[in-house]
Amino acid sequence: MSKEPGAFLTIGELSDELGVAQHILRYWESKFSQLSPLKRAGNRRYYRPADVEVARRIQRLLGQQGYTIKGAQKALRDGSAETVASPPLAAAPAPSPLATPAVDLQRLRGLRDRLQAALDA
Questions:
Q1: Which of 38, 47, 63, 79 has its CA 20 to 30 A from that of 22?
Q2: Are 56 and 63 in contact (CB under 8 A)?
């Protein structure tokens, strides 16, 4: 089951989409004032499309461009961070064949189970 474009995402959905742990997203919320999802009953987080884009920019700055937290905060604050929407995750450059891939088996198993459930429906 996929959501419509523009639908709010839960922390689990955003975590899966970006490939980062949920505790990392919560940490980013504490460090980047621009990332402030809606919080509903039980402190459940709902990320609006604008929040998703901010999280993608933070991920690019920290993970791909090598910024520190302070540097990424400044880049977002000053507007020097790229403002172009990120390409789909599938369009990311292929890793070097010599690099050892970091495999998150729990995430992959979860994706497999969700795909199987969708096919069985």
A1: 79
A2: no
Query: Cα-atom radius of gyration of the chain, to the nearest Å?
Result: 16
User: pLDDT tens digits, the chain, 121 residues: what are they?
Assistant: 467 777 899 999 999 999 999 999 999 999 999 999 998 888 899 999 999 999 999 999 998 888 999 999 998 888 765 544 344 444 455 555 555 556 677 777 888 888 888 888 7
Residues 6+ apart with CB under 8 A from 19: 89, 104, 107
What is the DSSP track for 11-67? Answer: HHHHHHHHT--HHHHHHHHHH-TT---EE-GGG-EEE-HHHHHHHHHHHIIIIIS--
